[in-house]
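subagent[fold] <- orchestrator: predict structure for attached chain, return tokens only, no commentary.
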Amino acid sequence: MKNELKEQSVFQKLKWWLNFITTIIMNSIIVILILIGIIFLLYYIDVVKNSTNGKWQPPLYQAYVIISQSMEPTIHVQDAIVTKRMDDYKIGDVCTYISKNPRYFGIMITHRIVGTDIDVNGEKVYKFKGDNNYSADDLEVSQNQIYGKVVMKIPKIGYIQYFLSSAYGWIIAIVIPCVGIITFDIIKLIKTSSNKRRRKR
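subagent[fold] -> orchestrator:
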């Protein structure tokens, strides 16, 4: 009788831990999906509004995963950021802009504004620098290159995105815990029915 109780206790603990891990993973996925859904909805509304007005500008909200160390310790590698388009930007703002530097052409860069100037056309331009970089970015950035100011940071969420998008990540994160819980339930049912038969005898 004691051995049976011990076995049930071990199974219950293992099942609890599997439930706990699965719940954390599922909640993380749900939060990510909700954030992505909200951003896409706002993105769609803003794009429709801009196309109706016949003008192009960066989407109101966008999200990115940081892949370089240039903004550490403010923003770490694999942190996710959410940016918001502003009418104007000021020194000290951390913003994401699209690079026109031939070495990084077309790449989205997230750095801090460290200065402003007026170009030959009389337009305001911005000087950017990564917090972890020794020098400022080579080229000044115009207003229309800036996609938005960082308004939210979600630490290390990029690792979850990378893991779930990997070949075996989804299986390890979702399928195996679910199969484990079902297996433990089946074993528990078999043991319960086996004990009932023994008692009847």
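orchestrator: received. Logging for downstream: The helical segments are 2-53, 157-165, 169-200. Strands lie at 61-65, 80-84, 94-98, 108-118, 124-129, 141-142, 146-154.
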